[in-house]
Structures are given as C-alpha cells and as structure tokens.
Amino acid sequence: MQHWLDKLTDLTAIEGDQSNLKDALAGLAEQIGFAGYAYLNIQPGHMLVISNYHAKWQSVYFERNYSALDPVVGRAKSMKRTFTWSGEQERPRLSKAERSFYAHAADFGIRSGITIPVKTANGSMSMFTLASEKLAIQLDREIDAVAAATAVAQLHARIAFLQATPSVEEAAYLDPKEATYLRWIAVGKTMEEVADLEGVKYNSVRVKLAETKKRFNVHTTTHLAALTIRRKLI
After folding, report:
1. Cβ contacts of 93 within 8 Å, gap of 6 or more
2. Domain 2-162 is in which class?
3. Is the predicted pLDDT of residue 104 greater than 80, yes or no?
4. CATH topology for 176-231?
C-alpha cells in the first residue's frame, strides 16, 4: 500500500494536461486491483467530482443528493484521516436509507474502499477514494496517515492548477428574481436598496434570498453572491 502512495505522489508531477492525469489515476486504480477512483472537492454550497465511476452512478449520485446521505462523505468530514469502509461490514449500524445507498452503489461495483480526506482552503475539503468490488478491504499493514494526506494534498493542488473539468458537479440554478437580486448585491447594494430598485417590499427580497441561501447551503448573503459569481450564475 505504501508503494501505491508513492505512485500517487509521483503521478501528480507528470507532465501533460488533465486528460493525462485522469488516465494516470484510472491506470493506478486498475493496477492495484481497484474498480475505480473518485476525487471529491467539497466546498460550502458546492461539490465537484473527478472520477472514472460508471457515468450513470455519478449522475444518480447528484440527482438524488446522495452526498448528504453517503456514509463515506460523512466519515471523511468528521474523521479527517484515512479510513477503509465496507457497505457490508457497516450494515448493522446503518440506517435504512444508508443501507439502500450502499446497495445502489453495489449495483455499480462499489462495495468497499479506501478514502483519504484532506482539509483545503476556506473551509473546504478534498477526498480521494479507491473503490473495490470486494465486500471488504484487507490491508497487509496500516496506511501511513501522513504519507496518504501528503499524496492527496498534492493531487488536490495539481487538479486545482490544471483547472480540471469535473466528471460531474452539483447542478446549480437561480430563478429570475434570485439572479436579479444577487446581481444588485454583487455590486454593493443592500437588500433595502435592492427592494427600492426593484419596486418590491424589503421582506420579499429577504425571504427570497434566505430560501436561496438554504438551497446553496450557505449562511450569508455575501457568501451566496460570491458563490454564484464563481459558478457563473450571475
């Protein structure tokens, strides 16, 4: 397993574009006997994935908002260290919804795996997973936590540098009123000023943007405006 971590570190330094990196990750997963890989970058209000999992599974994962249910993501957020997981072994302590999630993942050959989470800038987290069709992962020795975190941190930096295109990312949208209000907010207007400019009540703007913040899972209007600009929604 340590040899695998060395290889992961090495491939983050290879020359070439994002296609080379994605091919190298897929090749590494296959070489060491895993069904596939997934890199997730989880930011407040936004998540993107680079993976060679089955395209249908990736699509369903976002359509059904599985990230909120996924026990692997939950453990990564709380533990922030390398761990192995198995849908079968964890079954007795899972909720009905979580068991259903793992059963659905198993339909696509995802039954167990190794996940390495790392903390990234501004309250974000990245995690790298190698998934297996086996019921459980058997390791011959404990994974070096420092080496694992270092390798994934370098992978995260490389993906960010390449501005790699996600395999899939959470769908985001603004309705016409949300977009209009946030365009004003983005140029420095207060909600009171937005209400005056648009000829509506202050409460209409406040409630509308509160609903939008909840949907994007952010807590401030400033963060919401920044996020929608970054996602090119306004």
Report:
1. none
2. alpha beta
3. yes
4. Arc Repressor Mutant, subunit A (1.10.10)
